[in-house]
Amino acid sequence: MTVLDSALDTGGPDYEVHRSAMLEKLAALDAEHAKALAGGGEKYTARHRGRGKLLARERIELLVDPDSPFLELSPLAAWGSTYPVGASLVTGIGVVEGVECLITANDPTVRGGASNPWTLKKALRANEIAYANRLPVISLVESGGADLPSQKEIFIPGGALFRDLTRLSAAGIPTVAVVFGNSTAGGAYVPGMSDHTVMIEDRSKVFLGGPPLVRMATGEESDDESLGGAAMHARVSGLADHYAVDEADAIRQARRIVARLNHRKAHPDPVAAEPPKHDPEELLGIVPGDLKTPFDPREVIARIVDGSDFDEFKPLYGPSLATGWARLHGYPVGILANAQGVLFSAESQKAAQFIQLANQRDIPLLFLHNTTGYMVGKEYEQGGIIKHGAMMINAVSNSKVPHLSVLMGASYGAGHYGMCGRAYDPRFLFAWPSAKSAVMGPQQLAGVLSIVARASAAAKGQPYDEEADAGLRALVEAQIESESLPVFLSGLLYDDGVIDPRDTRTVLGLCLSAIHTAPVEGARGGFGVFRM
């Protein structure tokens, strides 16, 4: 039998300590997510409602099929910056008329929905997901355009938004824009470059230059309606394909557009899947608060895959990396999960072979991170750890099957790369609140800087200031610790969201379903030179 047994002692003190620590992190995470949900705050939310308008997430709720899930992406974008958490944009994947779609919605309660640099990064990431997975894009537009004080960070790279819309359309991926209010300046190109555009009577305003700009540029006097109102665009310019009487009607029309797309998934839906035999609630107590303490990733696998059924590949070779085959919500997956943190030569070679096998079989790969990186030291350097680590990274880089990554614990150094970190284009990457990622651990990094400083002082024949060294180490450790936390990295859009461990199976299932909208095909050869 390949059903995983569990050695997790849910009645033991360690489990309860780990569970309590995770619940504390989740409570802190909820507080940060609440900031995104609050948008521009009570004042601007009340003003928006006073105009008879729905909030961004309310529009999405009406758009998606009743009782269907919406997987919100990058909700913590801009965390830690001077801009509001969420970056004045909601993005995610939802089902509309039975079709999985990538949905974006401006939040007009945040500076009128104006785009700041993080809005742009978040929108570009959403387009990237839509393109890779062939998901129709629905843009719920209400934005005053670029946040002008930060235009230097938006204007030049911002052109990629419009490039993306045209490339999506050229690739046969439908794009739909529903305009709820202003869509001005460069933002006018969103409805202008979408395949289908819905505008609302007396609400939609779409123009390259509003009345003040037109007056300044040409001396012409004009009003909003004649310059860019929905009626004008529906009857005169032809920009509006559909004319709605209110927001609910616009959303209804958008749903009908999707219903008529004839957009089909490349793969049929899988058969109904058996749930895990072990309780996903127990995922809260697996990861230790101190990531130096190892944990068995099979305990995680047993709580996320169908029937807890896992066929392990090379279980006795390279035991610090668990590899094997499973199904998740009916979809086949190959799993690579760090067991004891460190990657040695055997683990690296095993991973490279496993990745090649997944590509031959057209099976997506799931990477479960808990690694401090590749092993260092004279014995391991002489044993070829560099070329073997490079072999694993080569395989990850040139693999063509979709990759999913979940950061559970540590994800440090080149181990982050070998396990398909953000730079290696996983289709989706999520983190648990327990995760940490950096070039190395805070203590190690501070210690390296201390050793270098000591050597420099010795070379100059100068005494070494131990008190200053201790202060510097403490400062560096605190900085690296804060910069390795998941909310900080999520704010930089280095992941697609920080998730509750108990939601991992659901989130991955939604992602796998979206992935199978596009063909899943592995590399047939095409890998770089594997150094032996």
TrEMBL record:
Residues 279-532 form the CoA carboxyltransferase C-terminal domain. It comes from the Bacteria. GO terms for molecular function: ligase activity. Residues 22-273 form the CoA carboxyltransferase N-terminal domain. InterPro entries: AcCoA_carboxyl_beta, ClpP/crotonase-like_dom_sf, COA_CT_C, COA_CT_N, MCCB/AccD1-like. Keywords: Ligase. It is an enzyme of class 6 (ligase). This is Acyl-CoA carboxylase subunit beta. It comes from Streptomyces omiyaensis.
